[in-house]
Give the backbone structure.
Amino acid sequence: MGEVWIKEAEKLGTGRIGGSMDSPSAPGRVVWHTTESGHGDTSFRNVGEYLIRIGAEPHILYDPTTDRLAQYGPLNQSARALRNDGATRTNRTGRVCIQIEVLAKASRPFTGYWRPGPNFRALMRAIRSWGVPDVWPAGSCAPGATRSRSTWATKGGHFGHCHVPGNDHWDPGNIDRAAIMKAAGGSSPAPGGSTGDSGGSSVARYKVTINGLEYGYGATGAHVTAVGKALVATGHGDHYKSGPGPTWSDADTLNYQDFQRSLGYSGKDADGVPGETSLKALMGKLPTKPASKPAAKPKAKPVVDLSNLVAASQRDPGLRQGGTTHPADVKVVEAALKAEGLLSASYAADGSYGSLTKTAYAAWQRRCGYSGPDADGIPGKSSLEKLGAKRGFTVKA
Ligand SMILES: [Zn+2]
């Protein structure tokens, strides 16, 4: 005996909708319907009452966007959402024939935007408790689905209204059958069965590019962290177990979805993947791609030719007489001496290896440990290389 009443479900109506099954020895099954209505609590109430009024109650009413779950009658008895197939009472076929009305439209498969939660898992737990296997014996619910009497009579598993013989409704639309099982969690061993499409996910996993930046599952960057922080700051961080971080996860999607809903979006517009409007609302303005800094061009190090410098230091008679030799080389050394605090700024860029420059260079030589005639202000290879290493030039000797 499986679960008759799902403890997580609200009760609707009197709790009495059908009766005993006609073929309890046939395998248990589920029939998925869509109400062809909107979702949300107002639809939930209105459609919930409407189905009672017209005497077409399913067992279960479910809102795929809020995970709200309600039950009309015991799962081990029949419901009333199917038409008979001639003399066959389709509502009473099987050990159980659990019928679920989902607040959605067949034209927009709810698995594309739904958000199944604990109540959905409770529903699937109850379904499995009756030995209903995780399979779709009649296959896809896409337009063109076939209604096979023999499949219906003999196979257990999940069906769409579109698969039931003697009926003419085409709900629930082309839902992702694998997503249904995946959202249920766990598994129900289904020998020889197949769940059809694989890899369905209940969380949207596509990316969008807005203003040159990627958002959505797998996107990475500082802008992803920034969105996460903004979500937390606006009270939409419930799904983070850790983070937010720079890689977009399902938790980011779910939090963003909460934020979209807070803006009044629903359905596909609230799938947790940012659009321009919601992103602007969250961040104040659309984040922009940080201008990629051109890699700072390493300044080519100046090269000082030692022989030029020696020539300049020996030939330049000094500022008073004007004229310079190899001023480019001299200027580099003057700048270095200035940086060492050995040459005043007023002489540091004249390019003339005059007496002040010579004096300054002699001071540098002493710093390098030379003395006497080795500290005469005329550059040598070793002292010049030391100055270059410290002040950014190389020496051509
Ligand atoms: Zn239906």
